[in-house]
Amino acid sequence: MIEEAEAVFRNWKESPDLTRSRPWPYRPAPWPDELLSSWFLRVAHGLTLKPYTLAHATWRSVPPLLTRDIDNMADPRIVGVMAAKVDVPVQRAWETTLAAYDGKLVERYAPGGRNAWILQVGVRHRVRGLGGLQYCPVCFTEHVYFRRAWRVGFVTTCPDHGLRLLDRCDQCGSTLEPHRSAALHLCPRCGLDLRQGSLIPASRRVIELQRRAQSVLARGWGHLGGQILGWSHLYFDTLRIVVKALSFGVRSQALRNAVARRHGGDPSSFPKGAKTSIEQMCVGDRHRVLDLAAPLMKAWPERLVEACQEARMWRSWILHDAHDPPFVIADVINEHLTLRFYKPSTQEIVAALAYLQGTGRPVLKADLMRLVGDCQEVNAIFQAHAIR
What we know:
With about 400 residues, the protein is mostly helical. The chain has helices at about 1-15, 20, 35-45, 50-60, 70-75, 75-85, 90-95, 135-140, 205-220, 230-245, 250-265, 285-300, 300-310, 315-320, 325-335, 345-360, 365-370, 375-385, and strands at about 125, 125-130, 155-160, 165, 220-225, 225-230. It has 4 domains: about 1-100, no CATH class; about 120-200, no CATH class; about 205-335, no CATH class; about 345-385. The chain is built from 18 helices and 6 strands. Helix 1 (about 1-15) crosses helix 6 (about 75-85), helix 11 (about 250-265) packs across helix 12 (about 285-300) and helix 11 (about 250-265) packs across helix 13 (about 300-310). The chain is elongated.
């Protein structure tokens, strides 16, 4: 898709129409790790234009910008034009989109679709119904812009300031909708300065887990326990399976209790009406679950196996919807958390048959199967008994 953005970039730069080829008078380059939507809004504010006015004047609402999650869509028509009008390389503009995580965070990114670990903002027209946009109040006091990392589900803290991220306005509780505000740091509903948001200390082990995960994401490979993972998405697929086991399902509460007894943390149940998808959970719930997942990922795989065995969470509960789980976790679960069928020995079947004969009642094969189960050897021994 970056090739399509390159084509759009050249088409606009080489156009004889000066309204297309001429850069905007205000053209700031993206800040480090800035989101595409944040970059576009900064440009609009710098040009003293409403975001809708700039979007319509530039794209004629094709594609629509403010009624879509443009960070997730990664539309080449938006990326290419932004690069041309701000006069930055297309590669730098592409890195503001979430699709740049393709092959690293996920094996194959689906632009505009649901991707593992990419937080959903719940776009409906211009309203954002979910808290998929996060921020750090202290970071906002330094530079007001939204980071791309803040749209990733396992990112719930600001390691630089040791704080938990926020995903709602402290005063009115509304989700962050900067496209409807006069400035990125203002709540559009109540006008609160988001830089005055609550300073909530983050869990140290969540910060450690997040730093390790972000390092894996930056490198493109990682390791877990004694195994090297050649592709970073295998690490994140494994982490997601662990977090889902702790979050959802009838056995999740028992697993949270087991982890909390062994390693500490908050095992309390989620509030009524909580979302049943990691990508839709609020930052507080994700932070609490990641605090329980952190010790399991640190001493791999012993702690995971011990906690699951205590909670009686077996393979069918952990991998019930994982179609192709990474080997690093599938091998552990198949070896330690699989309830295998028991096959009775010949001596056990013969002893059970003798017991039934001792009751003085007619011996039926169904009675024998109720005692020892069903297998081919039961049929053979019962037939030999019937012949005798």
